Amino acid sequence: MKILLDTHTFLWFLSGDFELSKQAKALIENSKNEKYISIASFWEMSIKNSLGKLTLDIPFSELKTEVMKNSFQILPITFEDTLLLSTLPFHHSDPFDRIIISQAKRNNLALVSRDSNFNLYDINLLW
Question: pLDDT value at position 112?
Answer without folding.
Answer: 98
